[in-house]
Each structure stands twice: as C-alpha cells, then as structure tokens.
Amino acid sequence: MYILGIETSCDETGVAIYHSTQGLIQHTLYSQIAMHNEYGGIVPELASRDHIRKLIPLIKECLQLSQLKKADIDAIAYTAGPGLVGALLVGAAAAKSLAWTLGVPALGIHHMEGHLLAPMLEEHKPEFPFVALLISGGHTLLVEVQGIGQYQLLGESLDDAAGEAFDKAAKLLGLAYPGGPLLSKLAEKGNAGRFKFPRPMTDRPGLDFSFSGLKTFTMNTFNHTEKTEQDKADVALAFQQATAETLAIKCKRALKQTGIKRLVVAGGVSANTKIRQHLEIMTKKERAELYFPRPEFCTDNGAMIAYAGCQRLMAGEVESLEINARPRWPIDELVQTQ
Ligand code: KG4
Ligand code: ZN
Q: What confidence score (pLDDT) does residue 338 get?
C-alpha cells in the first residue's frame, strides 16, 4: 500500500510516499523560512498562500522521483492539526480532493503524533512502550506511549514551548527567525560558567515545564552587559545549557516514574546537538535507550505524516469526506488503533 503524506501545519510544505512493507520511498520538502524571515516570525496568511503555491508541484515532484503515478497511490494522510488553521486547510482540502478523485481514503493525522512516530522511520527504532519528549516550536510534551494511539500525557509546558523560548531568546540577542539553530551556533563561541541561569520547575516534583522565566532571565542578563559579540555568545550558551539540563532532569524523572527504559526525543528542537548530548549522558547513567529521528525528520516533514497515516489506515481507521482541520487538538484525545 502506497501512502501519500502531506504536511502543511506551519511554515514547511512536506510531501512523502511511504510503502506499508518497503518503508519510506521518497520525501520532498519546501521551507518558507526565508519568506517569513524579514518579518521576524511566521505570518499565517503568507504561510497559507505559499502552501497553495508549493503543495501540488511538490506532490508531482515526489511522485516523479518515486517513479510512481497518481493512480498508484492507495491512501492519503494529511496533518489535520494542531497548527495554523489556514495552513492546515490547504493540506486538508488538497488531500481530500485528491483522494476523492482517485477513489482512495484520506485520513487526518495529529501533527505531534507524526513527530512522536518519526523515529520509527529509522533503522534503529524503538519498541513500545517508550517515553517521548516532544520539543517543537509550538509544543513541549512528555508522553507515555504504550502503542499507536495509546498516549498518556505526563507533562507539558505551562507557557512557552521549548522552541518558542529558543526563538524568543534568539530574537533578544538580535538573531534572525527561527533563532533556535542560530542561537545554538552562537553558543559554540560562548564561555561556559560566566552566567548561571535557573533550571525552571526542577526544584519541585512534577513533569511540567515553564520556559517563559528563562526568556525574561535572558533579557535581564543581556541588558546588564555591554552587548558585545562575546556577551551574546556567553548568554546564548547559558540559555542553551539551562534548557538542555532542564529537559534532561524532567526526562530522567519521567523514566523513573513510568519504569520505562526507552526515551524517544523528537520535534524541531531535538536537532540541537547540546540537548542530544545531555540526554545521551542522562540515559547512559540510567541504563536507558535513547532514540532520535535523523535531523531532517526532527523538523516538520511529510514522511512522519505518511508513516503515522500508514499505521492508522492499516489498523482500519477511516474518515468521512469532510475536510478536517483542528488548530487546537490535545494529543491525549487521540484514540487507540486496533
Ligand atoms: O517541529 P518544528 O519544525 O515545527 C513545529 O512543529 O513547531 O520545530 C521548529 C522549532 C523552532 O522553534 C526552531 O527554532 C527549533 O525548532 N529548532 C531548534 C534547532 N533546530 C530547530 N532549536 C534549537 N536548536 C536547534 N538546532
Ligand atoms: Zn512540528
């Protein structure tokens, strides 16, 4: 069964073809980052319009690279939420119309389920159950995963998501959007130990996160410096160090609380090498296994949506022809597949 995956929830148009037995056949991606860059953040209306421009050409390119025709597609999976409603509607409308003309099913996928299952696209993939840390621009979630659709929320950010905190801290330091990767690059030149940032919510029990205080701390610290390039790098390093340690402390707690020895880390921020290093050290000490998707599948992509769709379609899940877009959609509302 060939599944076409479509991702348009935010600022990346992602398309992929996944085969139920052969695995990932092909994936194509178009990033809108350069377009949003001059506004210092995502402009939702521009995002929707660009998805309209890029989606059909990307689907054609993906089919061509796979040496497949439209008629070879057996099902379509698309991101139904959470995300920007206009952007979601572009993918949902395209998926439903194409499915209708081809006479195949189309299924709406939860974007974070896509991220959560992205490590399954790798050769070194986890077995169930596992604990998943999902760190993206819009979400910071700790989830206990017993199987596809069996998700128990263990903790989440009470304010800014980890990626959002990276982007806001980066903006304060004068970096472009999205600042996460740029802040991380800048931190390489930083002097460790010059500033000590707090590790929010680690001094009390629980698995929730809060990153907005770190952003304020970053601003206050930076405003008390001369704002030289070295000051910027030192602040960036202290911020990254605090975020990485906080995430590692909470993941360790989640592993202890659930008794599970497998940790999956996914979402855009999981591309951060320092965060990966902290989690590697922690899991080694805890004798737990650690799984990441390859960096291109950490950020938004169509492959993770095609994979999640394949699992749900094979379990017999179906959807009406209604166009489905849910800008807000808690992950623990997802139902288990058979
Ligand atoms: O998962 P994703 O591509 O989109 C959402 O679903 O939000 O995540 C994007 C987020 C952005 O906030 C970006 O700054 C952050 O991931 N990010 C990083 C890195 N690469 C991407 N943050 C820190 N370090 C990185 N290397
Ligand atoms: Zn995402």
A: 67
> Looking at the structure, do residues 157 and 170 belong to the same domain, yes or no?
yes
**Are 287 and 161 found together in one domain?**
yes
Which residues of the chain register pLDDT less than 70?
A: 338
Dihedral sign, CA of 129, 155, 330, 10? negative
Distance 137 CA to ligand 2 centre (A): 7
* Tens-place pLDDT, residues 158-168: 999 999 999 99
Is 137 a pocket residue for ligand 1 (Cβ < 6 Å)?
A: yes
Q: Domain of 187: which CATH number?
A: 3.30.420.40
Q: pLDDT tens digits for 35-79?
A: 998 898 899 999 999 999 999 999 999 999 999 999 999 999 999
Structural domain boundaries, residue 99: 2-116+297-333
Whole-number pLDDT of residue 337: 75
Which of 166, 175, 296 is the pocket-test mutation for ligand 1 (most atoms within 8 Å of CB)?
Answer: 166
| Domain count across the chain | 2
Residue 144's closest CA among 264, 243, 250, 244?
A: 264
85 and 202 part of one domain? no
In this structure, are residues 115 and 140 in contact, taking their beta carbons and an 8 Å threshold?
A: no
pTM: 0.94
Establish if 338 belongs to a structural domain.
no
Residue 41: CB within 6 Å of ligand 1?
Answer: no
Cα dist. 33→11, 13, 83 in Å?
7, 11, 16
